[in-house]
Design goal:
By secondary structure, the protein is an all-alpha fold. It has ten helices and no strands.
């Protein structure tokens, strides 16, 4: 059983505040840190870390979503095709966990390795984000989405749904980068808004599924939220004042460090 000491609790509140600040500041990607931090720094079992992070992500992103709804448009066609893949994949993966009763030790090892790989990919995706933006010309005009783009978006949703249930990572930075590649002429603000709105119901469904499986630590969730709620408010307040390249490169470094900690665990 992992520690429930005062320093452990204060550490979780502080971590929640830092993660909440990053979510409020950048909107995407910061939640990727939470699961690896819970496992490596606070000794939370991998399955509980994944489940707790999913509900944490749903609640934190929903509190920050108003900013993206206000300042960014949502492409509902892309959102529908993403959700058509991700939500059924999420439910199918949860059903497999419920009925197959996989070896928890082997699953924990898989989660650590898969999460480390995804975090490394997410880090380099954050490094590459400005280059992906510069190489594409976007306009606010409506664009036509081809059948091929719809099919690839559906496949992306399927992949994200499985990854989110098993690792709690996938709906943020990875989804954003792939969307940039799939829709090079779509305005960046529309892609970001779409990605954020898609992540909220996805992580909520996955988190509630983990709740039914008993892989949610209510104490950990409460302490994280205790820090993240004021952290998000601060991040939203100062957003725009910090250069985007500093925020994204700093986040990429954190993701790489989180991956290293997992691989060393």
């Amino acid at each position: 059983m992992y520690s429930h000491s005062l320093s452990w609790s204060l550490g979780l509140v502080t971590s929640g505040a830092m993660i909440g600040f990053l979510v409020g500041l950048t909107g995407v990607g910061a939640g990727s840190v939470t699961t690896s931090l819970l496992i490596s720094a606070f000794g939370v079992p991998p399955s509980a870390a994944v489940g707790t992070d999913l509900l944490f992500a749903a609640l934190t992103k929903s509190t920050a979503a108003w900013r993206f709804q206000k300042f960014a448009s949502i492409d509902w066609t892309v959102l529908r095709w993403l959700s058509a893949g991700s939500l059924p994949a999420t439910l199918a993966t949860l059903a497999w966990l419920q009925w197959a009763h996989p070896d928890t030790v082997a699953l924990a090892q898989f989660i650590r390795k898969a999460l480390a790989i995804i975090l490394i990919f997410s880090a380099f995706a954050n490094f590459a984000f400005p280059w992906l933006v510069r190489r594409n010309t976007r306009s606010d005009a409506a664009i036509q989405i081809s059948g091929r783009q719809k099919a690839l978006t559906l496949c992306l949703g399927l992949l994200i749904g499985v990854m989110v249930v098993l690792t709690s990572v996938g709906a943020g930075a990875i989804g954003m980068v792939v969307l940039l590649l799939l829709f090079p002429t779509m305005p960046l603000k529309r892609l970001i808004g779409t990605d954020i709105v898609h992540a909220i119901p996805l992580t909520l469904v996955a988190g509630l599924g983990h709740l039914s499986l008993g892989t949610i630590d209510g104490r950990v969730l409460g302490l994280l939220l205790l820090g993240s709620i004021p952290g998000i408010a601060l991040g939203v307040r100062v957003t725009g004042s910090a250069p985007d390249w500093i925020v994204r490169n700093g986040l990429a470094v954190v993701l790489l460090l989180a991956a290293v900690l997992l691989l060393m665990k």
